[in-house]
Amino acid sequence: MPDMNWDDLRYLIALHRRGSFAAASAELGQDETTVARRVRRLEHALSAQLLFRDTAGKQRLTELAERLVARAMHMETETRHMTELVGMDQRSLAGTVRVTAVPVVVDRILVPAFPGFQQRYPDITLELVPEGRNLSLTRREADLALRLGPPKTGGSDTLAQRIGWLEFGLYRSSITSTPGKPPQWILYDTAHAYLEQAKWMSAQSDPHSTTTLRVADLNTAIEAVAHDLGQSLLPVAAGQNDVRLHQIKTPPTADTPRRPVWLLSHKDQSHLQAIQAVKGWLSNLSWGASGQMQDHS
After folding, report:
1. pLDDT for 221 beyond 90
2. Of 11, 163, 208, 246, which is the most buried if we count CB atoms within 10 A?
């Protein structure tokens, strides 16, 4: 059997994480042909089949390939640890940490806060992945995950800690084209009516009034409010930094909801210094209001 090139395992790991040659090639910065060639070379070195096509015609990893990937990911973690040890010896934290969260958290909270992180940790590369679905830490689709609720999957391999509460406030456009006119409510569609902010607005809005705009996520709600299409409940941490929005008072008997912010990590990576640095940064972010609300009602 020819000697196995351990670097080829990176291509198998990427294929495992991403589920397709196209997605794996995007992660690795290589074309699909190269990814396929490196996996075939690994098969030849092992004299074993690593891929097969399922009934839908999609490429899947064989049982042997899955077992190889599990071992290879441990090697990947140890390699990162050794890289960090060298960085620590040089008095510098270095590495790449991949963080996933819902788009509104990435776009409106993490991106504005990034300059402070970059100044403190100039040698750590932060990969921000705005994703509505829950990426798998076990499959190493991400190193860290921020979720607005307690974890339901991951088991004993996942470490979870609540790092704050995402507070909500009622917002309108800072420049309204119809002063004095009560704005419409920007509510949620039926599929997302279970969200805490959706339930709060449904309880506060006039059940007999009509609304011509419903949304499915917070980013869309923010843009709708900014364009003076109505009022909606938005995260204060996002709204307070957007000059297009202003927060208005809510009835004292109607406390606005808040959602817990959970930080998830994989226990096998808990010792990595770069990941610990990012976890510390995320834990210290302001998820609620950082100042006094201005009354524009």
Report:
1. yes
2. 11
